[in-house]
Amino acid sequence: MKIKQIDIYAIHLPLVEPFVISYDSYDTMPSIIIKMTTDTGIVGYGESVPDDHVTGESWESTYAVLKHQLAPAMIGENPLEFEKIHDRMNRIIRDVPAAKAAIDIACFDIAGKALQVPVYQLIGGRFHQKFPITHVLSIGSPEKMANEAAERVAMGYRSFKMKVGTEVMKDVARIQAVRERVGADIAIRVDVNQGWVNAATTLRGVRALESLDIDWLEQPVKADDIDGMVEVKSKTWIPLMIDEGLHGVKEMREIIAKRAADKVNIKLMKCGGIYPAMKLANMAEMAGIECQVGSMVESSVGSAAGFHVAFSKKIMTSVELTGPLKFSKDIGDLHYDVPFIELNEQPGLGVNVDESILEELCKFKDVVKG
What we know:
This protein is of the alpha/beta class. The chain has two domains: 131 residues, Enolase-like, domain 1, CATH 3.30.390; 221 residues, Alpha-Beta Barrel (TIM Barrel). 40% of the residues lie in helices and 22% in strands. The chain has 13 helices and 14 strands. It has an eight-stranded parallel sheet. α4 links the parallel β5 and β6. α2 packs antiparallel against α3, α5 packs parallel to α6 and α8 packs parallel to α10.
């Protein structure tokens, strides 16, 4: 079986409401979808959601890399040879993990369909039966965030990821407001997205948060400040999670060596897809570090890929792949049984893509053929 054609779609996914984090605000989510077709007629879908601040890639650059470099190099390759696919991509261009993730995910979708098994059966088999869904609260006023949290609790949600990362004490006020509104039994995870910059500022916030029973504090310092994470971790009992500071094997080695975090947030867009994500999970498992599969606000395609990784590993203790719940229109049909997610047993990713919606949301498109 060989890759015969790759269609590349640059799309904007419409959000129900703006998604606000420490470094940006989104009214729509830019995404690149690829449709990979083999000479046997099997079709697989992949997705790339780049982020200038996280993966170092823009929407436009990712499209160009796929069109001119990665997609042409994949024509004639066997999509089931994951190691060779990644080696070929890595020899062509350094980094660009979100671009590579699109190719990786499409290959796994094809492999599952060819072998008539879900992707999770290709990477260890299913371990978890279901995961609770964590609702993400965008940055807003304390009252707005507390009101939204209360509404979601009424819908059945039992955990929240709070986006903060502005002025530290204003962020503390937001967290306090949500905790007071939802009570002591609801899990709150705090994601700073590097917004507190350094250890000194973070420790100021940490002291105010230690009485609020926070599940964990995620990436409070700049991504490359691993030593800052070490300092914060040594001075608080609140568990620390690394997100933007972990891309691939190089960072994972340093995190393990310095014991810089209690948890790591593995994202397919940061590491290059399903295959490298499993390598990171195995490294973390050997070091006794819990893992989460996180979200870059992907469509059903990218979100399903992340769920397959999460469902296949015991060391995965949480997921935050809620992109499809944020869109007013999605290209796929990933099903959420709020407040839980349970994967189906369909071959491949288990997602049916509506090509009419894909065309509707498409801003521009190219086809790469053999």
